Amino acid sequence: MDHQIINISPASRGVPAPEGNVCPRPSATLRFRFSLRMLFVAATLVALLSYWLVLPTVKARRFVAAINSSNYNRADSYFSDSADRVLDKYEREFWTFKLQASLAPLATREVWKGERRINFNWMFGGPRPVRACSGVIVATRQGLSSMSVQGGSSYGFGM
Asked: I want to staple 66 with a disulfide (CB 3.0 to 4.6 A). Which of 31, 71, 119, 134 is the partner?
């Protein structure tokens, strides 16, 4: 049996051979390649970043909702230090107890520190005098910090 070698080089078809080492041009649509390991790492990083940025705001919103619905027992549960859990006790002890809370505007510095500020106003006392105060509570990923009371005034006469 005779075997013939057929030459199929470009030169045999009349096409001049390229000079030097020529790489083919990449196609216009490159396909992104990934492994399951990289997908898992990326999903974990996105989850950690979301946890870092969003959790203080979630805790702060839940606290504000509990305060504005007068559920002080639930609101107390958000404080990280048990010594700060006094809202339910104050609501039972004072004749007058009114607390309102709202989220402070979000600042970039707070996002990177993992904090969210909550502004509050409260009135308590009774039967006289009644004291009105305002202040700030800082929500972190671990829970709420102590109340920082700013100023206040008394109404009524002491007995």
From this structure: 71
Helix (H/G/I), strand (E/B), else coil: 106: coil
Give the pLDDT confidence of 27-50 residue by residue, as tens digits: 666 677 778 999 999 999 999 888
Q: How far apart are CA 127 and CA 130, in angstroms?
A: 7
8 A C-beta contact, residue 130 and residue 149: no
Contacts 24+ apart (CB under 8 A), 31-35: none
Do 136 and 144 touch, CB atoms closer than 8 A?
no
pTM: 0.67
Name the residue ranges covered by the structural domains of the chain.
36-155
**CATH level 3 topology of 36-155:** Nuclear Transport Factor 2; Chain: A, (3.10.450)
For residue 16, is the peptide bond before it cis, meaning its omega torsion is within 30 degrees of 0?
A: no
Sign of the Cα pseudo-torsion (22, 24, 25, 30, in order): negative
Q: How far apart are CA 81 and CA 100, in angstroms?
A: 21
12-25 burial code (b ≥16 CB/10 A, e <16) = eeeeeeeeeeeeee
